[in-house]
Amino acid sequence: MFGLVLIVGRCSFLTPPGVFMRVLDLGCGSGRDLIPWGVAPSDKVTGLDIDGSRLPIARMNFPARNFVCGVGESLPFKDQSFDCVISGVALPYMNIPKAVSEIHRILVPGGTLSLSLHLPGFTAAELLHQAIPRPIPTLFRLYVMANGIFFHYTGNTVGFLKGRTESFQTQRGMTIALARAGFEKVSFSRTAAATGKAFAVTAAKPTRTRMAAAA
Ligand SMILES: C[S@@+](CC[C@H](N)C(=O)[O-])C[C@H]1O[C@@H](n2cnc3c(N)ncnc32)[C@H](O)[C@@H]1O
Predict the structure, then answer these.
(1) Could you say which of 62, 182, 200, 215 is the most buried, measured as most Cβ atoms within 10 Å of its Cβ?
(2) Quick one: pLDDT at residue 163?
């Protein structure tokens, strides 16, 4: 839904004919149209999701793509094996420092990252409209709220019971987490600001020259 209005995350913008990008759709779910994210039909797309039950539907919907069951915090890919990583509201369910560090590892120098994330308004709406007055969902949403506040100040997230993780994100928290992982050119947009529930972030892994200059 949000991806339909997310025009900022261009992977293949200005890609010459015959050249394709290696794109990872992190937390792909059942797959989705990635053209609004700047992915061209010729690009080589790999989708990864922790929930293997969604992948058969994804394969049926997008037979040209490759789908893998795995976790964002420990990506089963070689270093520098993707040109672009996109992720539609999946990072809110991950250990963010681990996931962005893994994304940085698998991107080539100069590679790009485009994410859509949950604003505090999303968690507040879930708490008010989906959780209260049921005690366990309310407790979980209060954890998500506290985790989002913790993320805002530290750029870190903590897990709930059984390793389940969720948080909301803020510009400040993402700036800290992305800078710590080594990203640059971080930019934010709120194309879905009307709902107050989601926002978009793009960032880049520095080129080899910039990495050498910083060392
Ligand atoms: C809200 S859905 C978004 C799905 C898809 N990106 C879309 O935009 O329709 C979040 C997805 O993230 C996946 N996910 C959650 N935690 C994950 C993790 N640690 N590693 C990989 N995928 C994860 C879920 O299984 C789910 O498919």
Answers:
(1) 200
(2) 83
Whether 6 lines ligand 1, by a CB cut-off of 6 Å, is no
How far does the centroid of ligand 1 lie from the alpha carbon of residue 29, in Å? 5
Q: What is the pLDDT of residues 5-18, one digit of tens each?
A: 443 455 655 566 67
Domains and CATH numbers, the chain: 2-118+171-214 (3.40.50.150)
Tell whether the model's pLDDT for residue 55 goes beyond 80: yes
Pocket of ligand 1, candidates 89, 102, 106, 160: which has the most ligand atoms within 8 Å of its Cβ, to mutate? Answer: 89
Q: Is 188 left (phi over 0), alpha (psi -120 to 50) or beta?
A: beta
Q: Measure the CA angle with vertex 173, ends 162 and 187; round to 5°.
A: 125
DSSP letters spanning 112-169: EEEEEEE-HHHHHHHIIIIITT-HHHHHHHHHHHHHHHHHHHHS-----GGG------
pLDDT, average across residues 91-119: 97
Pocket test for ligand 1, best of 34, 35, 51 (most atoms within 8 A of CB): 51
Short-list 170, 163, 180, 128, CA closest to 149: 170
Instruction: Read off the tokens for 13.
Output: 């913008």
Range from 20-24, 122-126, 140-144, 207-211 carrying the lowest mean pLDDT:
207-211
The residue nearest atom 17 of ligand 1, judged by CA position, is 50
